[in-house]
Design a protein that fits this description.
The protein is mainly α and about 525 residues long. Among the domains are: about 160 residues, no CATH class; about 180 residues, no CATH class. Helix content is about 75%, strand content about 0%. It is built from 22 helices and two strands. Helix 18 runs antiparallel to helix 19. It is globular.
Length: about 525
């Protein structure tokens, strides 16, 4: 079964009611010479490992699969790496979606000006017609049947029942026995591309109808307990089948997301759109320009850095220099982030034209040093889904430590199941759960009376920052290796772990630790800068 490779992640220990985030943490200020040294060394190390990756890309190109390359842009005179299936597919499929996206924008502006009261039925009709044309009416009917089954389950007002039905429906994606049946029912093209598109989209559809049904069951339960006022009933009772279908099939966000949970989608879709001011037009143009710039940047990088092709060639990964291997580790992370920035922000910009506010794309991972924050700020829509429907219902940050760890474990378990239940995904999920749990435990220890007293009496803010960074490095490394299993599978993850940890010399380990420490200090400095900027604002 094709794995749903997605930027799925979250910060399972975040306190939803605290209003705090890593961007608001004000670290101690380091002496200026120390900060300058870290900045120069950190940037230099990134440039160096990137250059070593470029050398390895040119040297090992002859080992890589010919099908992974095509003739690149003629004026560059380079081969282009097209081995990343996900980017290669969606960058091509974009041209099929483009006419329908333009059609949506035009119709939406007409309706917005003249027939706002018809906006929802027009959006629903256009979305169903568009998706039916692109995927086939039988596939649309299959998606509708999925959603209606969960919708009926929500009629009881039981949160647990909706989850049981959702997981049973999700299981159809993870077992090969269901594949022939789904292909027959939906008339899916018997090609890799056809089945991949179907599975990718269905995985997102499941999240949407699950969000709708969970919100509906919560609303019905509250209504039955007489805890919903008459005003709330008249204003917020948007839980019809038509509302479900509009949420499931809303065209701009249908194919790649990002995910908006239904509570937010409902409020935004039923609100009167803001006026088109000069500032709004300029902001929208800047948003589209930013997306297309990063898409161009990715395409350009594929002509010089063959990280996608190299991670699937065991011979090259075993033979290349350690710094080239580190370069792969750095660039595949950056690539994954930029890829989803494009895949999320392009449809997100179209949805913003309709005055919706979908989650932003991932933040730059270069200045996120806690991997728990990486999950929180990478796929923000999925994070909100997990927080609202798993973490908080199980007690969330207001519960005791054991319940918080259990709620976090259930979030990671869902991510594993939703991604495809592959063995390497299990390793990835377990490693990240352990890392995030250790962060939680260490964070609790840091705020004990004893440690707080030690920090206040014996340590300067700068020294606290240095010690915190020393403790973060091992957790950061563990999460990095977990992600390498996610990117390259078992073989690549094992080689990466052996060459940089288990079989590496003591000098290599120390050098790697120091370089990571330096770059994490730079990340803390960026975080400190954001915190100062927010305080001034």
């Amino acid at each position: 079964m094709a794995t749903r490779s997605s930027a799925s992640g979250f910060f399972p220990h975040a306190c939803p009611s605290s209003g705090s985030s890593s961007i608001q943490r004000l670290h101690g200020r380091l002496p200026l010479p120390e900060s300058i040294f870290y900045m120069i060394t950190g940037i230099g190390s990134i440039l160096y490992v990137t250059y070593k990756l470029f050398e390895a890309s040119q040297y090992y190109q002859w080992l890589l699969t010919e099908d992974d390359f095509i003739d690149g842009w003629s004026f560059l005179g380079q081969k282009k790496d097209v081995s990343n299936y996900e980017w290669n597919f969606w960058s091509g499929y974009f041209w099929k979606l483009l006419p329908w996206g333009i059609g949506h924008v035009i119709i939406a502006r007409i309706v917005e000006r003249q027939f706002f009261h018809l906006r929802k039925p027009v959006f629903l009709t256009y979305s169903l017609v568009s998706v039916s044309y692109l995927l086939g009416y039988r596939t649309v009917l299959f998606f509708i049947s999925h959603g209606c089954i969960c919708y009926l389950a929500s009629s009881v007002g039981s949160f647990a029942l909706v989850w049981v039905v959702t997981l049973l429906l999700l299981s159809t994606l993870n077992y090969e026995a269901f594949a022939p049946l789904m292909q027959q029912l939906c008339d899916i093209p018997k090609t890799r591309e056809g089945y991949y598109l179907f599975i990718f989209v269905l995985a997102l559809v499941i999240l949407r109808y699950a969000s709708f049904s969970l919100e509906r069951s919560r609303y019905i339960a509250a209504k039955g307990d007489n805890s919903v006022s008459k005003e709330e009933t008249s204003d917020n009772d948007h839980f019809s089948v038509a509302d479900l279908l509009l949420y499931m099939f809303y065209f701009p966000l249908f194919f790649t997301g990002p995910l908006i949970t239904y509570d937010k989608f409902k409020l935004q879709m039923n609100s009167t759109p803001a006026a088109w001011t000069r500032d709004r037009i300029i902001t929208s143009i800047k948003g589209f320009v930013r997306v297309f710039f990063w898409a161009f940047f990715l395409e350009l990088s594929h002509h010089y850095l063959y990280y996608n092709g190299l991670i699937h060639n065991i011979t090259a990964v075993k033979e290349m220099s350690l710094w080239a291997l580190v370069g792969i580790g750095y660039t595949v992370g950056q690539y994954f982030m930029v890829k989803y920035l494009v895949m999320y922000d392009l449809p997100g910009q179209v949805a913003r034209l309709d005055d919706l506010d979908p989650p932003l794309g991932p933040k730059c991972i270069s200045y996120i040093y806690r991997y728990s924050d990486m999950w929180k700020f990478f796929d923000r829509g999925l994070y909100t889904f997990l927080r609202n429907y798993i973490y908080i219902p199980l007690g969330g940050s207001q519960a005791g430590m054991l319940m918080r760890l259990l709620a976090s474990m259930m979030c990671f378990l869902f991510i594993y199941v939703w991604h495809g239940e592959e063995y390497y995904l299990l390793l990835w999920s377990i490693a990240n759960y352990i890392g995030c749990s250790l962060e939680l435990l260490v964070g609790q220890l840091e705020y004990t009376t004893f440690v707080t007293h030690i920090k206040a009496r014996y340590l300067s803010p700068a020294m606290v920052r240095r010690l915190r960074c020393v403790l973060v490095v091992p957790l950061f490394l563990m999460s990095c290796f977990a992600v390498f299993y996610f990117f390259g599978g078992l073989a690549f993850g094992d080689i990466f772990l052996k060459r940089l940890v288990t079989e590496a010399s003591h000098k290599i380990r120390v050098a790697l630790y120091i370089l990571i420490y330096i770059n994490l200090q730079n990340a803390m400095e960026v975080e400190r800068w954001f915190a100062l900027k927010r305080r001034k604002d």
